[in-house]
Write a structure and sequence with these properties.
It is built from three helices and 18 strands. Strands 1, 2, 3, 10, 12, 13, 14, 16 and 18 form a nine-stranded mixed sheet that branches. The chain has a six-stranded antiparallel sheet with strand order 6-5-4-7-8-17, with no helix packed on it. A hairpin with a 3-residue loop joins strand 7 and strand 8. With 307 residues, the protein is mostly beta strands.
């Protein structure tokens, strides 16, 4: 299998990892938009769109970041380039969790579909327009390691009483993540690894001297990107016979314990944002910076053990 590009990062697959400070060469205030449309879901609080102002380096208040009164429309275009649906997005704060906010499809009117194209139009102050488009990737089959072993290290059912276990040192050899694609076109892979243990139960795989566990919640999960509790990797693959064999990911796990692993095919907008220099200029936004991307994802669960 030929791999065209390999990049490993510890970025969060969400908007919280964005730095909303305007670059030095920007002397005027601008706008940002960030969001990922996920196939099979609506634009809800888990997948909300953020719109706001950049903060000039010379000054600005964090309170000025969010724009909550923009007019936002999301349009759906099918494979025949026909407009098939649309919905308005409104800014809301989740009454059950005030940490969740953003522009959402309050009525749940539009379920995101693989291979469809989506266009977002944002009108600010009745004068300024932000535009972006994304084409959702094709459907994938995530087989995990089931093609190479009858003793899989993953389950897709988190209610299973006993989760499958994987010995850390053997993950790459015995538990590759295998993905069946619809063709052999270039494939943008993104994987997120989220430890489900409480911070005081999360044992470091590579402990520093006697510091076997995090000393506090902040050490376990940073406010900026949730690392080291959460890590992410992204790669560009060329499938062979409609198959991707992802067999070099074990070092994405920082702790022993239970994990949620999200395997995604992502669009070019989000990929360009992640890996290009000044990626916020390459995320598909017209009239601002940031990214407007899409993904097809599969979530799995496992437990990483020492022996």
């Amino acid at each position: 299998m030929k791999i065209y590009l390999v990049i490993i990062i510890t970025a969060l697959f969400a908007t919280s990892c964005i730095d909303f400070t305007a670059p030095e060469r920007f002397t005027e205030q601008g706008y940002y938009l960030t969001g990922i449309l996920k196939a099979g879901n609506i634009v809800d609080f888990e997948n909300s769109i953020f719109i706001g102002n950049t903060i000039p380096v010379a000054g600005g208040s964090i309170n000025d970041i969010l724009i909550i009164d923009a007019e936002v429309m999301l349009y759906e275009v099918d494979l025949n380039n026909t407009l098939t649906d649309s919905t308005s997005l409104v800014f809301m704060i989740n009454p059950s969790d005030e940490a969740q906010m953003g522009y959402v499809d309050f009525g749940g009117n539009l379920i995101i579909k693989p291979q469809y194209r989506y266009r977002i139009e944002v009108l600010i102050n009745n004068t300024d327009l932000i535009l972006a488009e994304t084409t959702v990737p094709k459907t994938i089959q995530v087989m995990a390691d089931s093609l190479v072993t009858s003793d899989s290290g993953y389950t897709t059912d988190p209610t299973t009483p006993e989760w499958p276990e994987m010995v850390f040192d053997n993950i790459d050899l015995e538990h590759p993540i295998q993905i069946i694609t619809q063709d052999n076109e270039t494939f943008n892979l993104h994987c997120g690894f989220y430890c489900l243990e409480e911070w005081f139960n999360a044992e470091y795989i590579f402990a520093m001297e006697e510091d076997t566990y995090p000393e506090n919640p902040e050490e376990y999960e940073s406010e900026a990107d949730s690392s080291p509790r959460k890590t992410s990797t992204f790669y560009i693959f060329q499938p062979t016979e409609n198959l991707i064999n992802f067999s070099f990911y074990q070092y994405a796990f920082n702790f022993y314990g239970k994990y949620e692993v999200t395997v995604s095919s992502i669009d070019d907008n989000y990929l360009n944002y992640l890996y290009k220099p000044e990626g916020y200029n390459h995320g598909g936004i017209t009239g601002g910076i940031g990214y407007f991307g899409s993904a097809v994802s599969k979530v799995m669960y496992t437990k990483v053990i020492e022996e």
